[in-house]
């Protein structure tokens, strides 16, 4: 039985339409499947800039955070060593 060329063309057109719609919908989501939002990215950037400016203007706070980071790193290394030793 020979396939109907009209049916084949209609099927190919429908497939292209589905692929285009799927591609268009994919642009609305980020890699994790959450809705993509330009506003969320801008807000994160502003928050990061604010933290950097705050740390640049306050050396005491910067030193305290550095000490906290070192202590936290030492704590995690100690936990990791305890886990590996048994």
Secondary-structure map with pairings?
Layout: H1 5-26, H2 38-57, H3 59-85
Which bin fits the share of residues in helices? Answer: over 70%
Number of strands: 0
Quote the distance from N terminus to C terminus.
70 Å
Rg from alpha-carbon coordinates: 27 Å
Strand content: under 5%
Summed up, what is this model?
The chain is mostly helical and about 90 residues long.
Features:
single chain; 86 residues; mainly alpha; 0% strand
Question: What does this protein look like?
Answer:
The chain has helices at 5-26, 38-57, 59-85. It is mainly α and 86 residues long. It is elongated, with a radius of gyration of 27 Å. The termini are far apart.
